[in-house]
Design brief:
Helix content: 25-40%
CATH class of one domain: Alpha Beta
Strand order of the largest sheet: 1-2-3-4-5-6-7
Order of helices and strands: HEEEEHEHHEHEEEEEHEEHHH
Bound molecules: zinc ion
Amino acid sequence: MKIRWTVLTLAITFSCAIAFTQAQNPPAPIPSVVEKLRDDLYVLKGEGGNVTVLVTNEGAILVDAKFERNHDDLVAKVKTITNQPIKYVFNSHWHGDHTGGNAKLLPGAQIIAHKNALADMVKGKAPGQPQLTYSDQMGINLGGKEVVAYNFGSCHTNGDTFVYFPAQKVLAAGDCFNTGNGQGLNPNNRLTYSFYMDYMSGGSFVGREKTADALLKLDFDTVVPGHGPVTTRARFVEWREEITKIRGRITTMLRENKSKDDITKMLVAEFGWDATGNAVTRSLDGMIAELK
Ligand SMILES: [Zn+2]
C-alpha cells in the first residue's frame, strides 16, 4: 500500500511538473498569412478566426480580432497592408478566437457586435466588450466606402454578425459558415461544411436555412468563412442546399425511431462528417432536439 501511494505521489508530481512547464512555455502564437481579395480588401488567415480587413483613406475596418495572443502579429500584418489606423472592428460572434484581441484594440478602435453577442460577453465576463451594438442591421460609411452588418436570427449563436462589403461583393460570414476543417477536410478528404452550433449561446440548425436564404439575397461572389479557405458564392449555395438535405434525412430517421448512432453513421457516410468532430460531439444532440 505504501509503495502504491509513493508511485501515485510520484505520478502526480510528474504530471504537475509537465503542466507547470507547459504553462511556463505555451507554444508560440502562429503568425497569420495575408491573402489579398481586392485592392482594398484582405484576409488574415491562420490561428483563430479569419480576419477581414477593408482599407479606406480614413482608416481600416476589421471583421474579428483573433485570440489575444495573436494581437501583435495581427497589428503587424495590418501594417503591411496599410498605414491607416484600425478604426472599427466587427465581432462576428462572441467566441474567444474572434474576440480575444478586442481588449488590446480598444484604445484606438470602436468594437461592434450584435446585442446578443455583447450579452454573452457580459455574462461570461469576457474582456474587450464591444462599445457599439445593433439588432438587425447597421452600416458604416468610412472614407466613402460602405460596410453593412446584418443579423438574421440564430445560426452559430444567437448573436452572429455577417459583414457585407457591397462594392467588393464580399461577405464575411463568421462561424455560421465554415469551410476547410472548420470542419472541412475529413479523413476521407472530402470537403464538408461545419455544422457546429453553439446551442448554449442560442445557436440553431433550423435558423441556418433562414439565415442562408436572407444572405443569398445579397449580391456577393466571394465568401470569407469564420475558419477555413476563402470560397465562392457557388460553394455557399451548395452549403445552403446541404442544410435542407441534412434536415430532411435526420427528420425522416427520427420518424423511423433511428438512434443518434444511426444518424451519426448516416452523416459520416452521406455528408462526409467527422464522427469525432465538433458537429457530432457538440451539435448533434441539439440538432436532434430541434428536429424532433
Ligand atoms: Zn465560434
